[in-house]
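YM 10:42: Phosphoserine phosphatase RsbU sequence, as discussed on the call
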Amino acid sequence: MITARAAASFDPQGRSVAAARAFVRDTLQGWGFADIVDDAVVLTSELVTNAVVHAGTRAEVLCLRSGDGVRVEVADRYPERELPLQPPGRRPYADPDRESGRGLMLCAALATRWGVEYTTTHKHVWFRLDLPDRPVGTRSAGPVVPDQLLPLADSRVRVAVVQIDSADAVSAWNEDAEHIFGHPAEKTLGRPLAELAAWPQTPGTGTGVAEALRLSRWEGSYGIRGADGRVIPVYASHLRVRDAHGEPSIVCLLVHDDERALLQTPARVPVSDGGQPTEPRPADPFELFIGSPAPDDLEGLLQRTVERARDMLDADAAFLLLATDDETELEVRATTGLPSTRQRFARVPVEAGASRYGSARMPAVHDDLAAVPGAVPLLESTGMRSVVTVPLKVEGRLTGSLGVAAESPGRYTNEEALRLQFAADRLALAVESARLGELERLRRGSLSFLVEASDLLAGTLDRDQTLALMAQMTVPTLATWCAVYTIADQASDPFLAYVLHEDEERIDDLKALLSRVSPPEPVREAGARPWPEAAVAVGGETVVLPLLARNRVIGLLTLGKPSEEHFRQEILELADDLSRRAALALDNARLYSERTAISRSLQRSLLPPGSPAIPGMEVEVIYRAAGEGNEVGGDFYDVFPIRDGVYGFAIGDVCGTGPEAAAVTGLARHALRLLAREGLGGPAVLERLNAAILDEGARSRFLTLLYGELHPRPDGGALMKVVCAGHPLPLRLRPDGEVTAAADPQPLLGVIEDLDLYEQTLTLDPGDVLLCVTDGVTERREGARMLGDDGLADVLTTCTGLTAGAVASRILRAVERFAAEPASDDMAILAFRVPHQREGD
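YM 10:58: structure's back
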């Protein structure tokens, strides 16, 4: 009868074989079928390999449990693959030396029963493994082995039984615990286990003592500090239980680490082909030193190493340094027992002296550092007197240095150096592998950082924003604080342009300190260099990187860290890459600012200097040029005096937008003023302007233009003479709300040579408004809708009683609200109004 089942599917890829093995192993161990796990895993591995590798289809694995065994089915979706038929006289199914059919051969050899079933879509290979006969009550059992292979133990085996309550404090401490660790029960009860345990764990990595006590079961190695202060390595098995009141506690069984076989979960003893047990695999020296499981990150591994080295030699401090790529310097990466002034990532030379004791490439024992000052720079002013250091080497190449130190002299001999060197030799390869993995992660992170930085820097051409981005990308990712100096030209001194600190409250103080220090000397050599003056003024380590762009130094990027930290070489290399990208972005922003300033200056020269005050008239102008950064486009306007009591005005639209249209705009506006002041009438002025435009040849552009003369009258009102050359007609608004066209349409300019233009005259009475616009107003669109002449007239009808300025503003607001998108065409609005005369005027 089937009592349990478990199923899983695996994609047709190589790693699925390992996943299938793990699935079957975990399933059978969970069912308590440890005796047949290995055979089931071997068979599953072969059958899944056939499905996902050879057949190239998904594999479906099904485990079925019964009271006396287990059945495992492996199905693939390649039913046309047939059983490997063999000629008569050959061994059935397969040859061990051939790939094809080996899974079926293993089924025949290992399984109690097996078979193959076909359907139209699947092929099932199944096997059954029966449980071996065992005495009643036996859950697991090992084979009979010779006495010489049995684990060693003391003649009087002691197992410490310690119970931990829900507050992680010791609530029970048996006699064997007193004997092993030296602590009497009355002095131990109520103390937290964390005070006694020397847990092989670094903050932020692995499983700590608090986490382990929360698990239902835990098994592994750690240390207990004995009454004499020494750490006693133990092997422990923890089981979390609850009492009759539901209160949880943890029962801990502990033995000496070399007697771990008493508690360790037994592994299946491998059997040779002759049926005899083989020698068990010796314990890995690296695991014995570091502990299992080993940290999976470099910082955790290094910190675990110095803690174990300190405990192994009963030292007061330990340190580990890693060599740079050129093996000329060692970088501090992990310490324990040293004051915080021993900076991480500080560097010391590999060759500190002429003798072998001055080189990190050889083991060294110093009985008393007071007799040889400076022999170990890292330990200066720490109170350490004796020290032993050993190199870490991989394939003959120096990769680091491991040392332990004590406060009393003469603590170490060559014997301790040999023990430490033995441990260093076992962990050097693991440290180097973890270091290379960290470098690879740093490189990938650096690439991602630089890509993001490039995108941000490329997204702006504003100089101030570029300076802010440079600092914000640097702090706190690369440094604690940052200062950017800019250099206007080669004759100028560096100017402190931007300061940023990770603590915003310290920015002003930092800026004040840097302002009192002479700026760093600009140099063309790439890479970071120290800046001692700032380091003295601010404190900590300070480096300067040049901002090089287009073969000149345009600024300096200064980075700083507090006194207890140092810059890593990888960080400085990343900062160098960032400085090159930032320098180019900063120089682009400078060039853009200069070009923009020139462009704006030239554009402003094309605009009228201002509208004159016309007696008895209100005049309002609104102008909007399309395009980012444009102040002048194809639309233009002008109001100017011609002679006493006579004023000229114009509003026009050159074909197109941008600088090309603006050039014709400048020609038209200046020509109009010149020709009008020569005493020519409106038609003559426009005819000569038309000729000037046609003379431009390929650069010429046609334009529409409304030109007029304004004659204010002393008794109120004004006489206007206008010529409308292809331009939207001016609209006249009466006080009663009537809107009418004030001119007739005539041919535009810049198309034909001979024009026959005429002038029209109208009178503006008090309260009248004359509105002149360009087609950017009337051709405002929202989808298929257009404001048009009628829409403009409707808006103007609502403007009775308003001043000229209010009329122009209302027209602009109506145009902007007509569509959600920004305007794509230039726009000019020119409004005249004759105000009502007040009594007494």
